[in-house]
Amino acid sequence: MISLYRFLFILIVLIVSNYEKAQSQNSTFKVLMTQGVVEGMKPATTTWFRIYPTIELPSQTKIRLSANSYATFLSSESVLVEFDKKGNYVLLPTKKAKQVSSFQKISNFVNQAMKSGTQSDLAGSIVRNVGKVQVQFPFDTKLLGPSVQLRWQAAKATNFEVKITDEGGKNVYTKSTKDSTLTINLLNDIREFKRGVCYYWTVSNPSITSSSSAPMCLMYHDEETVQRLEKERKQIAEELSISDKSALSWYVLGAWNEDKKLYIDALECYTHSSKLQPNVDIYKNAVNSFIKKFQTMH
């Protein structure tokens, strides 16, 4: 005869097991991005409908992609789902991931990154002074490492002068160059450099008055902040099962970096995603869309 305690133990195990099974059968999927004709059919229905970013779908929803279409989803368990070929699919329940970042937070990263992307209207022009040097990258940015490459452009200019000032306006670095890029190590090249504060870089054409670019902030985070952000980034990568060969994974990491104002890291991620999926518009145009956001602000 089974003892009362053993009976209760078995009963509890069955209840927990059935609860977890029921939970795994009720995933919710948020549509992150689509391209081409993507349709869905919810469970217990017979009608197909067009799927667009931001809508939410229950598990067991059928998904249909036409030729040259693409769709990505984020489950309520923080699992990324990606369909990139013509065919029929089903949004199957996903297992619960580590609770590092939430379903909504991750989707917000991606939605924010897409706000000035190819799905938004970026019409308009930027009026600039003739002869003025224009920063290409980076604009105001935060850094997890001391090394940074500065890039700029100016019509017909062959000589440039790069200056960096501290928050008080004191000049702490000057470099003349004929190139349109310059790589510096903030710790090595700037005397008494302080982490966690803004240093402002500008570039000018010495032969033209008032040709200097607008000052842009470079902030190398203090060690505690660097460790915290690197830990968070690693946790998100583990939580989402980030794959080096997944354009979506790189795009999500790019969106996370952008959200943290780590724009150099964000650009690297967006560049990688565009190389992995050159035929998907959101990835193909990711780099230009990202850069254009800042060009319209400066």
Folded structure, characterized:
- This protein is an alpha+beta fold.
- It folds into three domains: about 25-95, no CATH class; about 135-220, Immunoglobulins (Immunoglobulin-like); about 225-295, Serine Threonine Protein Phosphatase 5, Tetratricopeptide repeat, CATH 1.25.40.
- It is about 30% helix and about 25% strand.
- It contains eight helices and 16 strands.
- The strands form four sheets. It has a five-stranded mixed beta sheet.
- The chain starts with a helix and ends with a helix.
In short:
Helix content is 32%, strand content 26%. The protein is α+β, with helices and mostly antiparallel strands and 298 residues long. It has three domains: 23-97, no CATH class; 134-220, Immunoglobulin-like; 223-295, Alpha Horseshoe (Serine Threonine Protein Phosphatase 5, Tetratricopeptide repeat), CATH 1.25.40.
Task: List the domain count as a whole number.
Answer: 3
Number of helices: 8
Q: Looking at the structure, what is the overall shape?
A: elongated
Strand content: 25-35%
Strand ordering within the main sheet: 10-16-15-12-13
Rg for CA atoms: 25 Å
Helicity level, as a percent range? Answer: 25-40%
**CATH-wise, what's the superfamily of the largest domain?**
Immunoglobulins
What's the number of extended β-strand segments?
A: 16
